[in-house]
Amino acid sequence: MNSKKKLYGSAALLSLLLLVGCSADDDTSTNDSSAGGSSEMVESSSETANSSEQDESMMEESDMEEDESNDAPYSYGAVGAMADDNLTMEEMFTYAIQDEQLAHGEYAYVLETFGDQAPFNNIISSEAQHITEMTVLFEKYNLAIPADESADHIQRAADVREALDNCATGEVDNIAMYNKFLEQDIPDDVRATFTALRNASEGHL
User: Fold this and answer.
1) Does the predicted TM-score (pTM) go above 0.70?
2) Which residue from 154, 153, 151, 133 is spatially nearest to 197, judged by alpha carbons?
3) How many angstroms separate the most distant Cα atoms in the chain?
């Protein structure tokens, strides 16, 4: 009888130990699964944060590029020439013919908008002659003549008074441009042409 009780007691104890072990395994498995899920969530959050930081960085770089683009000098005609501190002769030719084309376009616009009147109708033919003189230099030095883009840079005016102011400002800029060119080391024939064009603008002004 005592042997049977001992046998039953040992079996019960063994069963209890097995149940406790299984429960512990289940808890460990659950904890491992929970820890794995938590780790995945942390990694996912980290990736999302990194992606957001990269997007913000790209947006900041894009904004900086736009700001730099907006701050870039206006590289056309006399205004472009005055902002250029490293002039080559070809660049001087380009700025000069651009400015002469712009002047001709300005006077043509005024005549078309406000009618045939002085001093615009007197000066426009001179501007055409200035373009011809610059064309001669381009051909002599075997340089390509740039396309005429002056229509994109013409100053519109509300009346004749404003048109006069715009054209006068253009002549002042033109004179300053040629004075800057004449300070450079340039051939005598180029110097003579620049001087003549500068003097003509002084007459127009």
Assistant:
1) no
2) 133
3) 140
Q: Please, are residues 175 and 201 in contact by the beta-carbon 8 Å criterion? A: yes
- Residue among 76, 60, 99 at smallest CA distance from 178: 99
Q: How many CA atoms lie within 13 A of 33 on its CB side?
A: 6
Q: What sign has the CA pseudo-torsion 101, 103, 106, 112?
A: negative
Question: What pLDDT, in 10s, does the model give residues 53-94?
Answer: 555 555 555 454 444 434 434 589 999 999 999 999 999 999
95, 77 contact by CB (below 8 A): yes
Gyration radius (Cα) of the chain, Å = 41
Distance separating alpha carbons of residues 99 and 65, to the nearest angstrom: 29
Q: Tokens representing 123?
A: 């000066």
